Amino acid sequence: MKKILEGIGMVLLVVGVCGVLRELTGWFRFLGLARFVTEYFDFLHGREIFANIVIAVVGFAVLMMADHYRRA
Q1: How many CA atoms lie within 13 A of 5 on its CB side?
Q2: Residues near 35 by Cβ (< 8 Å), separated by ≥ 6?
Q3: Crossing angle of helices 48-71/2-25, nearest 10°?
Q4: Under 8 Å between Cβ of 57 and 49
Q5: Which residues contact 27 (CB under 8 A, 6 or more apart)?
Q6: 10 versus 72: which is more confidently predicted?
Q7: pTM
């Protein structure tokens, strides 16, 4: 279970950070998940950076849950 949480958390963290870099610098155009989340949901238009920061924070929280699960 801890490996699954670590994998999901790492993917979310990387997608969120790459999404922020994509919005600020224009890099990582190939990253499909960040583009899907911010471009296909109408309520996120104009809030792309915030959405990617939230994805990264959720990924970090999942990683912390995996670390806590390991110690329990």
Answers
A1: 14
A2: 22, 29
A3: 160
A4: no
A5: 18, 21
A6: 10
A7: 0.83
Least trusted range by pLDDT, from 4-8, 32-36, 44-48, 55-59? 32-36
12: confidence class by pLDDT, cuts 50, 70, 90: very high
Which position has the token pair 């990617």? 52
DSSP label of 1: -
Q: Round to whole Å and give the CA distance between 39 and 26.
A: 15
- φ and ψ at residue 64, rounded to 5 degrees: -70, -35
Residues in Cβ contact with 43 at an 8 Å cutoff, skipping those fewer than 6 apart: none
In the 8-state DSSP scheme, what is residue 30? T
Distances (CA, A) of 59 to 7, 26, 39, 42, 47: 10, 22, 20, 23, 19
Burial bucket for residue 6 (CB in 10 Å: 0-12, 13-18, 19+): middle
